[in-house]
Structure formats: structure tokens, C-alpha cells
Amino acid sequence: LGHPWCKYWMHVHHLNTNDGKMSKSKGEFLTVSLLEEKGYDPLVYRFFCLQSHYRKSLVFSWENLDNARAAFDKLIGRIAALEEDGAPVDEAAAAAQRKKFVETVGNDLNTSLGVTALYDVLKSDLSAATTRAVIGSFDQVLGLDLLEKAQAVRMQATAPVEGAEEVEALIAQRAEAKKAKDWGRADAIRDQLKEMGIEIKDTPNGVEWKRI
């Protein structure tokens, strides 16, 4: 209510599975509820779809969606990792990037190149503030909540971690178990940490861990 109805109707190409066209009659169709039930953020599915042109058939599988989720999480991580450099927003540079994006996506709604433009901006030498401003303007079209999700990642990274002492103690116990070549005990501790929502990674500089 209070706004005009859509002015354009677009017929996108089929969403296929590896066995052919996905259809309701076959009992093969996706809903937001199903995605959420399986633990997927619906925006991951949007990201998955945006990476293909609407005129092309898109092959869906849970494996392909998992790949899209990994790429989406990595994209959010890169945005979250933008470090402040004190430089203000370069309005001229931001305007040039927006113009390029509009021309790209405006060419028959080429969202796949629009997604590519996101990565190009992250690889550019623009300041962090300008990069975020540009990404925010791109996201008005893509609708992926990029800045909001990146902010949530930053807040989670800086928030005090409840139970950190217990986690560190278990990691130390795992190190002792590995030293004693008690691989079963080491694996059991890793599984225990996973059940606590902790992911660990062995690196040359020691064990890194984060909440998942």
C-alpha cells in the first residue's frame, strides 16, 4: 500500500537440479522456510542466484548452495576486515564506481557482473570509508545486507567471549594429548569444542579458535 505496483514483469530461466527442471509437481521446490529449516540464511540463496544471469538456467544443489554460503561468508569477512585508515569518503571516486555499476547491471540486469564489481571494489586502492560507501550503494540494488552483516562480524570479534578460559584449557589439554600421541583424546577434545560452538584451526603459530 502507498506505492505503485511493479512496472515490469520478468520471466527468468528455469531453476534446475542435476536431474532436470525443478518443479512443484515433482515435489522439488524451494521455500524460504525450507532453507531456514536446513540452517541457511535466505540471503545466501539470493547471493547464489545473483551470480547467474536471469536468462540462463541455474542448476541448484545443496553442494552448490554450500559453495555459495562459503563464498558469501568470505565476502562478508573481507568487508568486515576493512581497516580504518583515517581517509574520508572520496565522493568523486565513489560516484565513478556507482556509475560503472549502474551501467553494468543496467545492461539487461546483469547481476553476475554486479557481484563481480563488489570484488573489484574490495581489490581497489580506495580508502576503507570509500569502499564501504560504494558497497553500501551497490547493495541497495543487490539487497544482501552486506554492511550490516560485516558490522555484526566485527562486533562478534571484539565482544568478550564467555567461557574463554575453559576453551583455552581444553586446547591446552588437546596439545598435551597430541604431544603424547593420544590421537583419540585429541580428537575427542576437538569434538567437545565443536559441540560448544568452537572451531579450532592448527597453524604454524599455534591453535586459533573462533565461535561458529
Characterise the protein shown here.
With 212 residues, this protein is mainly α. The protein contains nine helices and five strands; from the N terminus they run E-E-H-H-E-H-H-H-H-H-H-H-E-E. 56% of the residues lie in helices and 9% in strands. A three-stranded mixed β-sheet has the order 2-1-3, with no helix packed on it. The chain has a two-stranded antiparallel sheet with strand order 4-5. Helix 3 (62-80) crosses helix 7. The mean pLDDT is 88.
Strand order of the largest sheet: 2-1-3
Query: What is the string of SSEs from the N terminus onward?
Result: EEHHEHHHHHHHEE
Point out poorly predicted stretches.
none
Percent strand equals 5-15%
Q: Tell how many strands the DSSP assignment holds.
A: 5
Number of helices: 9
Looking at the structure, what is the overall shape?
globular
From the N-terminal CA to the C-terminal CA, the straight-line distance is 40 Å
How does the major sheet shape up? Answer: 3 strands, mixed
Q: Tell me roughly what share of residues is in helical segments.
A: 55-70%
User: What gyration radius follows from the Cα positions, in whole Å?
Assistant: 22 Å
The average pLDDT score comes to 88
Alpha-beta classification: mainly alpha
